[in-house]
Give the backbone structure.
Amino acid sequence: MKIRVLGCSGGIAKGVATTSFLIDDDILIDAGTGVGDLSIREMQRIRHIFITHSHLDHIGSIALLIDTLFEHLVGWPITVHAERSTIKTLQEHIFNWKIWPDFTVLPNKSRAVLKLKAMAAGSTRDIEGRRVEMIRVNHSVPGVAYRIESQGRSFAFSGDTTTNGSLWSALNKHDSLDLLFVESAFANKDIEIARLAYHYCPQMLAEDLPKLKHRPKVYISHLKPGEEKLIMKECNKALPDWGLYQLKNGDRFKL
Ligand SMILES: [Zn+2]
Ligand SMILES: [Zn+2]
């Protein structure tokens, strides 16, 4: 399994984009602004998008991607997988003919270019040998993490979340975990904002990460632009045994 980081920041700037990971060449986990770094040919290979939650920094590129690839997708739709409530939010607030056309009925219902497919936390979907498991987390809107396994190797991404027990216990049910991306959006000085916005800060993450029985390589994502160094310093101070890395745009992994 290959993982390419198209975006992993809490914001945008030159060379900095919001959350999106390309798995092999056909699955996206979230569709933040990083999707725009792909060539048209690379975009045409995308068949599935798994969404963690409805916030704009994680869904912003779905609408533009579908529009860009329209002719290519007629009768051969991209499938967006998400929780039922997230699908409903996308239908009501994005694909509503006001913000963007409803691509689930374009050019017509039977040959539509976009398919929205609800999935429940705790369930798994098999995409040609990649097992994608949806896991409940704790964010300000309904949010999930994903664990993806392929040929015995596994990767998990926390999505946006604050302190929770569900992610760690779900990951512990499996025999192994090779790679973990987990968020720490804020520095410790912003712990109150982190609580209100349902994100982690290093101090909160330090209470949760030791619940994990596996010892994967751990990368921190969703760092607030301009505070990356401080957040990483605090993470490594709070979790000295873990050797945590900062996830960066353009990072590539092979499992
Ligand atoms: Zn969010
Ligand atoms: Zn976010």
